[in-house]
Amino acid sequence: MTAYLALAFSVGLLAILDTWLFGVPLASFLPGLVWISFIAWGCHFHSGGGVKGMTTAIVGMSFGALVGMVAVILAGGALAGLGDLAAPVAVGLGAFVICLASAVPFLATIPASVYGFASIAGPILLAGMAPTEAIVPTVVSIVIGAVFGIVSEKLAGALTKKDVAAAAAEPAE
Q1: Cβ-based neighbour number of residue 47 at 10 Å
Q2: What percent of the chain has pLDDT over 70?
Q3: Could you tell me the pTM of the whole model?
Q4: Does the structure show a pLDDT above 60 at 162?
């Protein structure tokens, strides 16, 4: 099987499993958060794949989610006196912190942190969770997605290697 087809097969098959996990056994703990898993899965590949990509997705997105949680808390608390500017200022402060934190090697991939920052908004705004209640399900969804990223990569590699090994075993004409 070609690497292209193997990756498509791997991702498609595992997408079924990921969606089922969030829709059935994890539905009460991670209500509708499969999309965060898919963002982390994509972040894994965007960050270079392998263990590095998985680590970058988990660490960067989790950090971004934490910064997003604090931004929401600030918008409704310390910055609430700013009225309509509370949320924009909180988001601006969060973006500022994410950019400054990129000096730390594990947080150097700014988009990974931005994905996490944006991801925590879903459970807060759509599922009605308090910011502090949303952080754990968001991070768990991130970890699941990043793991699916590396698993899909390994499965695609295994499918490709089997085809190469079979071709090598065939007698030459």
Answers
A1: 24
A2: 93
A3: 0.90
A4: no
3-state per-residue secondary structure call for the chain: CCHHHHHHHHHHHHHHHHHHHHHCCCCCCCCCCHHHHHHHHHHHHHCCCHHHHHHHHHHHHHHHHHHHHHHHHHHHCCCHHHHHHHHHHHHHHHHHHHHHHCCCHHHCCHHHHHHHHHHCHHHHHCCCCCHHHHHHHHHHHHHHHHHHHHHHHHHHHHHHHHHHHHHHHCCCC
Tens of pLDDT, residues 4-47: 999 999 999 999 999 999 999 988 888 889 999 999 999 999 99
Distance of CA 69 to the CA centre of its chain: 16
Quick one: which of 49, 69, 44 has its CA closest to 138? Answer: 69
CB 11, CB 120: distance < 8 Å: no
Q: How many angstroms from the chain centroid is the CA of residue 103?
A: 21
C-alpha to C-alpha distance for 5 and 133, rounded to whole angstroms: 40
